[in-house]
Give the backbone structure.
Amino acid sequence: MGNAHRRHRRRCRACACGNIGAHRACGTDTLDGFPTTAGTIQPSYGGGDADGFIVTLDPTSGSRSAATYIGGQGRDELSAVAISADGRIAAAGTTASTGLVATAHQQQLAGLEDGYIVVLAPTLTSRIWSTYYGGRGFDSIAGVGFLPDGSIVIAGTTTSPNTGEAIAANIGEGSLRMTPPDGFLARLDAQGQRLWGRYYGSDGQDSITSLAITQSGMILVTGFTNGTNSAMSYLAEAQAAQNNFAGGAWDGFVAVIRPDGTRLWGSYYGGTGSDRCTGAIMDAQGYVYVTGSTTSSDLPREASENTTIAGAEDVMLGFFSPDGTRRYASLLYGGSGSDLPSGIGWLPDSTIAIAGSTTSGSIPPLDGQNSGDFDGFVLRVGGLGILSAEQPPTQSAPFRIAGSRLLVSLPEECRSAQLVIYTLSGLLSFADQQISSTADIELPAGVYAVRLHCVQGEEYRAVVVVL
């Protein structure tokens, strides 16, 4: 695995260690004496350079409920955590330890570093199953998630060949390794036995940085690459919003993978600088929101108030159509330093939060200033998230674009309504507290999120594009 890939993996290690509003966390500790709790599966430090750890917190008070080490005599890092509908906790990362408990798919370390997955009871007092995952090279897991049937999907980066089906199995697409390192994905059943595994890469170097499971059970992955979209590449199809490498050190990429391991769609996202995608989410209508960092002065920008790079690295936020063929918006946020997003998620009001670290003294429009070399930041984006609530299938869309005008006609069941229009960077563009039948609104060219809330409780949401 190249040094740039290894440094980036460790820098972004915390990005997958929880969800906004969640009550579990994971990470890596390099010192004995971490405050674990009695009765957990590993209350004592395992040795080596570092051990992983898992902590559960009370969602109301924030107080610690349980904490345990995960590690052996080598270096062990946990970088991702997920929780199932019945409360099982899955944590995954990278290990060089030979003696970790492994009860399922792969029971021994196979290479220099392997992925490692452990599934625990909610109390952290018992292990349901655990397994290594890797071949004879370097293998690291960056993301883990539960599918609705209780099976688990993992994603990460590998340099290993497929000797003995170490990485890929039970699949056609993605069965061959390209130029290492490549991304990889695998699905394990509820008992930890592999259902399928695959590579995800190109003719260059590729690294997967995040994994998310959508409401519909699709698999979202992000990463970065310097590979071109050759005939053998898995990164993008011809009709993708960005179907090839734009140049520079890296381009980001995003992909939607079906539960059977085949790709629904994939796209590059970047310019001629260095671009990395580090997180993605999907709303109920299938629109995909992708965040990452960029140094590209020519990063595609649509509907962005920030038109130039403000510092060394800025936050980028892309808004893709459900089929991946259009990028409706591409936004920039940043200050004078390096702004590095590491995760994206829904807030309870269906707006979006992006979290990460920064060296910038300030990042418009964020409040406050930094207080050290690196500070964390949370950026809330209002307009993108209003589409996340699912609509009843019987509703007809009350919105129509005519030239530069948005025409709104209330459905029969909607006697009066509130109309709200946001730009896709979260700015309120229009609000009317009471519409009785129709509305006709002039809008500048751009992409808008529109919400019509009827007094009876029905709600209509849409993305509209004014050319």
About this structure: The domain at 399-466 is CATH 2.60.40.10 (Immunoglobulin-like).
